[in-house]
Amino acid sequence: MHRREFLQRSVIATLASSVLADKTLARALQAPAGAPPAAPLATPRALTLDSYSRFLNWLRTPDEVAEATIEITCGGVMVSVGTGSSHVDIAKVKTDLPVWVNAIRKHGLKVRQIRGGGQTAVDADVENLVGTMSQLGVTHYWLGTDQYDLTKPIMPQLDAIKTADFRAKLQKELGSDGASSR
Fold first, then answer.
1. Residue 133, class by beta-carbon neighbours within 10 Å (0-12 exposed, 13-18 middle, 19+ buried)?
2. For residues 157 and 27, what is the distance between their CA atoms, to the nearest angstrom?
3. Rg, the chain, Cα only
4. Residue 82, number of CB atoms within 10 A of its CB
5. How far apart are the first and last CA of the chain?
6. Does residue 116 contact residue 129 with C-beta atoms inside 8 Å?
7. Which residues pair with 66 in a beta bridge?
8. Is the distance from CB of 116 to CB of 86 less than 8 angstroms?
9. 3-state secondary structure string, the chain?
10. What percent of the chain has pLDDT over 70?
């Protein structure tokens, strides 16, 4: 088969499948005679993709991170909080996190989640983090990293993580829907 013939057949096949799909869909949506009218379809919820500020760690100001996020067509930012190259130092979270969140929101972006460091126990830093983000309207967090013993069954280890004091205490006391350790 020559290239031109292949392309012509491909175009015809694509058009035919498109037309058939539309007629089949239209027939499926038609109500049978005498049936009550169908309820309107629910409006789909717009999805927003967040950038992860850690992947923009060479940018050091919230304005730079926000501009890069807009450039890559994301609608929000998940700010990294911790030590080292994190954008917000965990020791200064009460003063620095509001600055970051408000500056990013000025660009029309959402900040709904925070990525903390490797914390796996509730301490003053974690309580300050979750308390501050709660005041800012940030509803989700990701803290810690689970460590699995690969010589033992995984499911009991996951069950232990789900009921861990760490997550339960934060969610109960601070009213956040965090997703720590995931």
1. buried
2. 50
3. 25
4. 22
5. 52
6. yes
7. none
8. no
9. CCHHHHHHHHHHHHHHHHHHHHHHHHHHHCCCCCCCCCCCCCCCCCCCCEEEHHHHCCCCCHHHHHHHHHHCCCCEEEEEEECCCCCEEHHHHHHHHHHHHHHHHHCCCEEEEEECCCCCCCCHHHHHHHHHHHHCCCCEEECCCCCCCCCCCHHHHHHHHHCCHHHHHHHHHHCCCCCCCC
10. 64
Q: How far apart are CA 153 and CA 151, in angstroms?
A: 7
Tokens, residue 118: 């490797």
d(CA 173, CA 7): 63
Tokens standing for residue 99: 């600055």
Q: What are the phi and psi torsion angles at 113 (to 5°)?
A: -145, 155
pLDDT, tens digit (0-9, with 9 covering 90-100), for 94-129? 999 999 999 999 999 999 999 987 777 778 888 899
pTM for the predicted model, two decimal places: 0.63
Q: Which structure tokens are listed for 176?
A: 């956040």
Largest CA distance in the chain: 71
71-85, 90-104, 160-174 — which is least confidently predicted?
160-174
What does the domain layout of the chain look like in residue ranges?
50-174
Q: Are strands 88-89 and 140-142 parallel, antiparallel or unpaired?
A: unpaired
State both tokens at 54: 């850690």
